[in-house]
Amino acid sequence: MRRHVTFVELPLPKGRDINYELQWLGTSLGLFGDRDRDRSCFRVFITLVKDGRRRPLSSDKIAEQLELSRGTVIHHINNLMEAGIVTHERGGYALRVERLQTLVDELQRDVDKVFDNLKKISKDIDECMGL
User: Fold this and answer.
1) Is residue 88 part of a domain?
2) Total number of domains in the chain
3) Which residue among 4, 9, 85, 131 has the highest number of C-beta atoms inside a 10 angstrom radius?
4) What are phi and psi of 106, to 5 degrees?
5) pLDDT score recorded for residue 35
6) Collapsed DSSP state (helix, strand, coil) of residue 21
7) What is the C-alpha separation between 101 and 118, in angstroms, rounded?
8) Residue 78 belongs to what domain range?
9) How far is residue 40's CA from residue 77's CA, in Å, rounded to a whole number?
């Protein structure tokens, strides 16, 4: 399986503003950026955070709820799936896990696994090249 995950280091949010914190979390995970001008990816993500664990949501349902085209929703869902945030199950889409903290823990384990593989291969290459 191939995943594409980007991490962006941002200053921690100041104060308690749930919308800002959700935006900060998603931006830190590389999910939203300057290209998400209409905040459609953010809105798809929030919909899945709110409703997607209780029951998987179809792309049509998300599109209808957010007044977006199905193509736009599918585009963002594909990106969220590629990042390991969303899964396809029971005819719909849902967050990979129920809680955001658990999601971050799982993403960290995924990244640790990638770095373990990088270390192993780089060590093999160094030995092969006599470095």
Assistant:
1) yes
2) 1
3) 85
4) -70, -40
5) 73
6) helix
7) 26
8) 18-97
9) 11
Q: What is the model's pLDDT at position 114?
A: 92
Q: Which amino acid is at 16?
A: R
Give residue for tokens 């977006």: 68
Whether 62 is covered by a domain: the verdict is yes
| Ordered DSSP codes for 32-66 | --TT-TT-HHHHHHHHHHHHTTTS-B-HHHHHHHH
Question: Which CATH number covers residue 89?
Answer: 1.10.10.10
The candidate with the shortest Cα–Cα distance to 61, out of 48, 78, 79, 42, is 48
The pLDDT value given to residue 125: 97
The rounded distance, in Å, linking the Cα atoms of 106 and 116 is: 15
pLDDT value, residue 129: 93
**Mean per-residue pLDDT pooled into runs of 10, the chain (131 residues):** 79 88 89 78 92 83 94 93 89 89 92 95 96 90
SS3 state at 56 = coil
Token pair of 57 as six digits: 């949501």
- Secondary structure of 75-101 as H, E, C letters: HHHHHHHHCCCEEEECCEEEECCCCHH
Distance CA 129, CA 112 (A): 25
Query: Residue 98 and residue 81: Cα distance in Å, rounded?
Result: 15
